[in-house]
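P.,

For your records, the input lines for the assembly:
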Amino acid sequence: MSYKIPMGPFHPALEEPYKLDMICEGETVVDAKLHIGFNFRGIEHLAETRNYVQVIALMERVCGICSNIHTLTLCQAMEQLTGLQPPPRALYIRVVMAELERLHSHVLWAGIACKLMGFKTMFMTCFALREKVMDVLQAISGNRVNYSMNRIGGVNRDIPDPLALLPVIDQLEREIVRTVIPILTTSVTARSRCAGIGILTREKAVSCGVVGPTARASGVPQDLRRAAPYAAYSELEFEVPVETAGDVRARLLVRALEILESCRILRQALAKMPPGEFHAEDTKLVFPAGTAVSRVEAPRGEVMYSVSWKENSRNPSRVHVRTPSFANMPAIRWMVAGARLADTPLIQASIDPCYSCTDR
Amino acid sequence: MTVLDSILAKLGTAEPWVQKGGVYWLDPCPLNVRNLAKAMNALSARFVTITAYQLPAGEGFRLEYHWDLDGQMLGFPYRLSGNSIESIYDLCEAADWIEREVHEGFAVDFLGRDYEPLLLRPGDKLGVNLREEVVR
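Structure tokens returned:
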């Protein structure tokens, strides 16, 4: 006899609301339905009522974790429309901010994953590390969450002495390698809680169109930093970690390896940062009528902005945001099918879902 | 022959790609959305999203279908004089949520599929989020 267990809208593991109705037989989940929209704020509609300066501040608030990525993607789209080119230094600063944000997001996620595995101590360790990443972000931008770094044609703040940040990145990497990485990669407990559960096959990953670490953990080697480089990524060396098992452990491993790659990218970007201006000349912008699309590899996967403008208007006529969680969350249905009920919070958390992003 | 040229050959059109705003556009697309989805699946392209626009003065809607092929963004705009278009959900599972979102936000019907509510919204009202007027 099957029965329904509703999980949410207050999630047992995550701090945001959504609902998963699971159809179970005994302790086994046989099917699930997702319900979203609890965080719907009508941001796309609101964007149509904001001018080109205000809309950047608005879109930074789509997500509390990858806020910088949203303004980066939006500004790239608006730069395509206006033809305003950011100077080379700005492109490197954008890489630094994007990779620090990836570090912050992955370490935060590792903490939550550890908590769900029963590693409460590691949760505290990860969040202490996350604080240090946020300290670096604050030192650069002056802000801890919404950094206000991106503008059309560059960035708002310079990194006056990039080489001074190198020892900080080295220290962060040492701590992460000493504490987080061994737990995520070699711990018996992590393996027993994560291996073989929440499997998303490569075929299903392709069919669902999942993105980011969720796709790469299922053997789909897609990463926009490599496939369609933006900012200064084409001038930097890095690997794209790919695992093939498609289970929670594979998603854990991919993120652990990506933390190391982010440190590698950060070191290169800080060392190679060219001198010069960090934003284009201040001028009143005139937007021609048209549509521009921009994509960026956020910590959770591909973010896409489609921005349209009417001739001589101060406001966009349409801003459409396709966030990575919007692409990844439908796959949860297939990940939890056949899983034990007790594993489902960890399985859901393994895609690092962001409900604010999804609902907008 | 480039990859993009070979796509045109497979789609059976002489219309050139127009690169604009970060996208290779094919406008008009010679295939309907379902045949386009089949062609894109055959090329192992990845469905990205549908961007919907309400056109002014009751002129209908424009839906832009975005597909990714090895990092290149391909765009296929479709103009709807009414408010319906065929669903590609059965051909492309990734289109499920965005079809539901466009249905709820713009009251566009994707024919040939069932809907379950995606976002929380008042009762059974459609088009309350992004349409300028609620039509139902």
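Two observations worth noting. DSSP finds 16 helices and eight strands in chain A. The longest helix of chain A spans residues 88-117.

Regards
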